[in-house]
Specification:
alpha/beta, 2-enoyl-CoA Hydratase, Chain A, domain 1, Lyase 2-enoyl-coa Hydratase, Chain  A, domain 2, 4-stranded mixed β-sheet, 10 strands
């Protein structure tokens, strides 16, 4: 298998890109896989997309890091930095990111899903941070992103026991945002991706940027960011189209260009 084949990149519709992890057996996030994923998410086509769907195989979204690459502190430093570089690039994508999860999303696979904006799980999905069972801790963002999704106490319990979470519990605790039948996973994921890509896409990008920035600052500073962004969005073509359409035809009838 070539380096390029580790992550397949497709564009099923305008403004939408689907990235499929494609490593045999378990979709392990090896150093090579992480490097290829980083190349993909920093490519012009993916950076320009309004919606990006990340998915894997039917049985496995991604089973985590490539354990055979583990060694001592030197190897851990290399692997940890590669995980952070890649998953931070996923989180920084300006478009709306959706993790479409079928089967197991464990360790680094769970961390990749958490780096996305939204997680749609099939009824077969299983999440977990099982690193403790190897005597180690999550190193791809799990100690930071999991508490932000499910709260610190639940995150500590999950990471300290290494137990796996099925889709129904994942939905209940906030680790998944939707659960659908397995045969509807990509249908629903692409439906949502297309709805956002076909809407006021520049406004969507601004919303993502302001929400993410605001989560890391005070409410007062976040509100200042919102005012600046509110002014900015009125400079887009879609804002003019949307306001004009509302005044002439009522809500929800505008046809946006994404500019």
């Amino acid at each position: 298998m070539s380096h390029q084949d580790l992550v397949l990149v497709e564009s099923p519709s305008r403004g939408v890109v689907v990235l499929t992890l494609n490593s045999p057996k378990v979709n392990a996030l090896s150093t090579a896989m992480l490097q290829r994923l980083h190349e993909a998410v920093t490519s012009p086509a993916v950076l320009a997309a309004h919606s990006i769907v990340f998915t894997g195989g039917e049985r496995l979204f991604a089973a985590g890091a490539e354990i055979s690459e583990f060694g001592g502190p030197t190897e851990a430093n290399t692997i940890g930095h590669q995980f952070h570089k890649t998953l931070n690039a996923v989180a920084a994508l300006p478009g709306f990111t959706i993790a479409a999860i079928s089967g197991y999303a464990l360790g680094g696979g769970c961390e990749l899903a958490m780096a996305c904006d939204y997680r749609i799980a099939s009824t077969k999905a299983v999440f977990g941070q099982p690193e403790i069972l190897l005597g180690i801790i999550p190193g791809g963002g799990g100690t930071q992103r999991l508490p932000r999704l499910v709260g610190s106490s639940r995150a500590k319990e999950l990471m300290m026991t290494g137990r796996q979470v099925k889709s129904d519990e994942a939905l209940r605790i906030g680790l998944a945002d939707e659960v659908v039948e397995a045969d509807q996973l990509m249908v629903r994921s692409q439906e949502l991706a297309q709805a956002i890509a076909g809407g006021a896409a520049q406004a969507s990008r601004i919303i993502k940027r302001v929400v993410d920035a605001g989560m890391n600052t005070t409410l007062e500073e976040g509100l200042r960011l919102e005012i600046d962004a509110f002014v900015e969005v009125f400079g887009t073509n879609d804002s003019q189209v949307g306001v004009k359409s509302f005044l002439e035809n009522g809500p929800g009838k505008a046809t946006f260009s994404g500019s």
